[in-house]
Structures are given as structure tokens and as C-alpha cells.
Amino acid sequence: MNRLQRLIKFYLLLGALLFSIGTQAHNVEDSDQVNAWVVAFFNSFNDNLTQGRMDAWMESWAPNAQRRTPMGNADGKEEIRALYQSLTERYSGLTHRIVDTVVEGRRASVELITVGIHRDSGNRVVIPNVALLTFNH
Fold first, then answer.
1. What SS3 class is residue 135?
2. In the prediction, which pLDDT does 45 show?
3. What is the pTM (predicted TM-score) of this model?
């Protein structure tokens, strides 16, 4: 009976270990996917807005999205469009550089540096920024 108990414990531990490894692998895959979405989101910002493709950039936003930044706040796609239209009129070469990303589920906290050239003064502006993103798909 002692040997049977050890064998049962062994298989229970083995099952728990395999379950744990499978769960961790799934979480890593999800985390990798969310990181890829974060990079794609900010690449779209950098590529589309610097090329004047506001419509392509707006495809990244959900209808009820919110944007809270040191450069302005906006609720919903139309306000976000107006905010970025205003920003691109005041700053040339406006880009985001990702510094760090923390992922939990389908949410990401992204530390950024936003850089642009103020069109009137010609001064380079560097603004620390944070984005909290939730991905729906």
C-alpha cells in the first residue's frame, strides 16, 4: 500500500506540474501577443500620423476609447481625432518611443517618450508619457 500511495502522489505531482507548465506557456503566449499589439499600435501612430494618414491611425481606436495625456484628454473617437489633429498641426515628427511595457491579460501599461518639433518655435519637445491600453481582439 505504501508503494501505491507514493505512485499516486507521484502522478498527482506530475499532473500538477504539467498543468502549471501548460498554464505558464499559455500566459507567455498571451503576453507575447499583447506585446506585439502594443508595438503595432505605436508603430501605426509613428507611421501613419507622420505621413498624414489620420484615417488609418483612427482604425486603431475603439468607438468609446479614452485618451488621457499630458498633451490633452479626449473621450471617443471623434475627440481623439480632434486632439491628434491639433497635435499634428502644432508639432512635426510627433512620435512615441516605447520605454517599457507591463502586460496583464489583455491590458498593457506602456511607458513612452513622446517627441516632436514645435512648429512655431522649432524647439524639440520630449514628454514622458504613459499609455494604459486594453485590447479587445
1. coil
2. 86
3. 0.68
